[in-house]
Amino acid sequence: MTRPFTGPTPADAPASLATLHAQAFPMLSSAQVAQVAPYGETIAVPAGSVLLNSGDREAAFYIVLEGYVEVLECEADGAMHSLLLHRDGEFTGSLDLFTDRPNAVTLRADCPSRLLRVDRPALAKLLLADRPLAEIVLRAFMLRRIGYVRQRPYGGAILRSAAGVGQADPVLDLVVVGGGTAGLAAAAYAASEGLHTLLVGRLRCRADLPGADALPGFPGTVTGLCDGGLLRRAEDQSRRFGSHVLPSRVARSFDGSGYPYRIGLDDGQVVEARSLIVATGMRQDGVGEPAAQANTAWLDGYLDTDDWGYIHTGRAAAGSMQARAFESSQPGVFAAGAVRAGSVKHVLACIGEGAASVRVVHRFLDASAH
């Protein structure tokens, strides 16, 4: 007898808000700043200088060496609202740096300031070359995106739950399976844009076990992003807007014979969802080999895959000439990151795919609602 999804268990208790803030806004040491310096340039800016504009696509990463950088949000009436100040040793940025999305906020020097500026291509090179620093930066970027929800969802998205006010909707808008970089990015964007989202995120972090999002040029998983790390911290933020993170659960089955879809978890729970993003990566025991297997056996053969289990998407998916980007042969089921056939299998590309796939989920849900 299966049990319906009821949300996080006591074993998945959230981290403290103080820990969340420290992880989202870390202060780099002088040695860490020195490691970044060859990738950027030191600039001096007067008070009031705008570094990035909300809505623009040109972006950069800044470390505050001296002074303050203010993060501002544009209100509906055009007024600018101050969200926070970055001080000496802190850095700016979020997951938007690795996507084609416009900047969500404006950055402005609050006083005469000295900054280390790193453009987007150089930042990508830095994070692929320096794993410890990458863990700090990517963890912060994930948490900032998850936490970027105030009175209204980002981008004007509408909460899609069919339940009435004050009622729980047993059917989720989206389930994301996979707690690697693609899955985390997808879940962070989906939840922050108003989708009732569940992230089933178990990862194994040891190199001799299958199940991790193994990425050439960035071996194994980012240790700070797996198991008891970022996923547990993300749960506290996600629950604020009706979404959930299950860091220790594994998806065991998928039933695509009806709609909404049904995903079975290893503890007996059954989740019903209007859409699904598969971001389960590839088996660690085949890293870098042409025959490395994707983690898709649990999908029970419902999706069109290649000989190694990688999911075909878009027009490459059998019978799917009208399929959207990232969409599999099963309408409303999407693949992102290393598990998708033809994807670029490194960490930053996986983040970009996870974020981009959420846009396509919105279009599917819009179409299926009419």
TrEMBL record:
The record, for Pfam families, names: cNMP_binding, GIDA
- CDD domains in alphabetical order: CAP_ED (cd00038)
Instruction: Enumerate the cofactors the protein uses.
Output: FAD
Q: SMART domains this protein is in?
A: cNMP (SM00100)
**Ranges of residues in domain Cyclic nucleotide-binding:** 24-144
Q: Which domain of life is it from?
A: Bacteria
* Name of the protein in its database record: Glucose inhibited division protein A
